[in-house]
Amino acid sequence: MSFFERLKTAASAEWRAYTGHPFTDAMADGSLPEAAFRHYLVQDYLFLIEFARAYALAIYKSPSLADMRESAAGLSAILDVEMDLHIKLCAGWGLSPGDLERAPPAVEMLAYTRYVLDAGMRGDLLALKVALAPCVIGYAEIATRLASRPGARAATNPYSVWISEYAGALYQEVAANARAQLERLASRYATPAREAELIAIFREATRLEADFWEMGWRARP
Ligand SMILES: Cc1ncc(C[n+]2csc(CCO)c2C)c(N)n1
Q1: Which of 61, 114, 122, 163 lies 20 to 30 Å from 55 when distance is taken between CA atoms?
Q2: Alpha helices (H) along 20-64
Q3: In angstroms, what is the span from residue 139 Cα to ligand 1's centroid?
Q4: Residue ranges around ligand 1 (CB below 6 Å)
Q5: Helix, strand, or coil here: 20?
Q6: Where in the sequence numbering do the catalytic residues fall?
Q7: Cα–Cα dist 196/167, whole Å
Q8: Which residues form the Thiaminase-2/PQQC domain (predicted)?
Q9: What pLDDT was estimated at residue 129?
């Protein structure tokens, strides 16, 4: 079994709660109230700013130039691609990038981003990439599942743009690269003695991802 499969198996209850959250199903069938999605997306913009810092930390923590380039590509995927989706969608509600940056941060956003940054600061690159894995690999898995639902990508679904973005080739490749890098790092730096610590980081980050959906889900009118 691959390293990532072992992490997922060890955190299977948390992984299921995250990747199968009702928020995601409601995006697929278009029934998610706009207010819930809007709250999620504004907080996700703040989340991406902090995650950009986590990728910058990963560049710093990289033992090799190849690892550095890998994290630099992730950083650019956030700053140059992913945030554009948020800016475009929020512009439709009359929100400017400045409005988004000034939004009051939710505790779920703070808890998750602080956790990942802290895991990265006290640990090595592998620990940081394990903390980032639920985010990068999870969204690719969720979007692929949602895109396979009938009507999910139809123009009548207000969430088709979001689904198509993460189910699209670009993000699928970002996730595949992240997964391959995780396997490479694990083969070099994971030892049986470290496995419990790495599983604990993965489980906690996955739980905080589910809490992030839950934050949006609670914002339903
Ligand atoms: C709560 C939350 N979790 C995951 C992602 C997805 N994501 C964040 S950074 C990144 C990698 C490079 O773009 C990806 C796929 C998100 N947007 N919000």
Answers
A1: 163
A2: 22-28, 34-61
A3: 7
A4: 44, 47-48, 51, 74, 77-78, 82, 135-136, 139, 171, 174, 209, 212
A5: coil
A6: 135, 209
A7: 31
A8: 14-218
A9: 98
Domains held by the chain: number: 1
Place of tokens 């589910």: 210
pLDDT at position 126 is 98
Contact 13, 201 (CB under 8 A): no
- Running DSSP on this structure, what letter comes out for residue 33? -
* 3-class SS of residue 61: helix
**Which residues of the chain fall short of a pLDDT of 50?**
none
Q: What's the ipTM?
A: 0.97
For ligand 1, pick from 114, 129, 135, 171 the residue to mutate: most ligand atoms within 8 Å of CB: 135
Domain of residue 75 covers 3-218
Q: 47: Cβ–Cβ under 8 A, 6 or more apart, which residues?
A: 109, 112, 113, 212
Per-residue model confidence (pLDDT) at position 20: 98
Q: What is the pLDDT of residues 82-137, one digit of tens each?
A: 999 999 999 999 999 999 999 999 999 999 999 999 999 999 999 999 999 999 99
Q: How many CB atoms lie within 10 A of CB 22?
A: 12
pLDDT at residue 99, as a whole number: 96
